[in-house]
Design a protein that fits this description.
Low-confidence stretches: 1-7
Helix content: 25-40%
CATH architecture: 3-Layer(aba) Sandwich
Structural class: alpha/beta
Oligomer: single chain
Radius of gyration: 17 Å
Shape: globular
CATH class: Alpha Beta
Strand content: 25-35%
Mean pLDDT: 92
Number of helices: 8
CATH superfamily: P-loop containing nucleotide triphosphate hydrolases
Number of domains: 1
Length: about 230
């Protein structure tokens, strides 16, 4: 697969992926295939237990499929060692979670800089890049605040800045508005949409909120472990 960074190239390939758990009731995912292009913003929707979060975990290299293959930015990731998978996550994937997952004793900029710390980037450069990303998400005035000093919406903006600071190819967002009120959630979706367009980053988002899903380029229905309908949201 051509890995040249250009508009229209495929960033994520999921081919015939299946996943079961020993203590579960059969397969969680059944022969799932999915392609995402560069700068595409797609929503995974479906009922609880349909397999959405399992698929996101497999794409995020937090788990391995039983069958099938996954490629990220042109690289097959199914047979990576734990260390190799960690490196791919750090360089190619950014994560945004429902519960923010910020370190309480760290300031906003220190939280944002964590992916760069794990790459071995020096402190001064980490700080410059983190502050710039906080400015991009509208939080330059909260750079030295700790999470408990910020609202839920502000904390999610910090988490988004952290996900983007390492210039990933793919953002995985798991219910990013789930802990926010509707107005704040809409603001976070507007921010994600703007960053998606301005930075050209591909976003795959799990959501139960159909109104939020309508903000995306594509809505992918997951039901009983399979990809059902795939619709343009616009």
């Amino acid at each position: 697969m051509d890995c040249v960074d250009k508009v229209g190239r495929v960033v994520l390939v999921v081919e015939n992926v299946s996943k079961s758990y020993a203590q579960g009731d059969g397969a969680v995912l059944k022969d799932v295939s999915l392609h995402l292009q560069r700068a595409e913003f797609a929503a995974l929707v479906g009922p609880s237990g349909s397999g959405k979060s399992t698929l996101l975990n497999l794409v995020g290299l937090l788990d391995r499929p039983d069958d099938g293959g996954i490629q990220i930015d042109g690289r097959a990731v199914g047979a990576l060692t734990a260390l190799e998978a960690a490196r791919v996550r750090n360089h190619l994937i950014g994560f945004v979670f429902q519960s923010f997952h910020l370190l309480s004793r760290q300031t906003a900029w220190e939280n944002v800089a964590l992916p760069l710390f794990h790459r071995g980037v020096g402190r001064s450069e980490r700080k410059v890049r983190a502050l710039a990303m906080l400015d991009r998400v509208g939080l330059s005035d909260r750079s030295y605040y700790r999470p408990e000093q910020m609202s839920g919406g502000q904390r999610q903006r910090v988490a988004i800045a952290r996900a983007l600071v390492g210039d990933p190819r793919l953002i995985l967002a798991d219910e990013p508005t789930g802990n926010l009120d509707s107005a704040t959630g809409a603001q976070i979706m507007d921010l994600l949409r703007t960053l998606n367009r301005d930075l050209g980053v591909t976003i795959l988002m799990v959501t139960h909120d159909r109104d939020m899903a309508k903000c995306c380029d594509r809505v992918i229905e997951v039901r009983d472990g399979r990809i059902g309908s795939t619709l343009g949201a616009g």
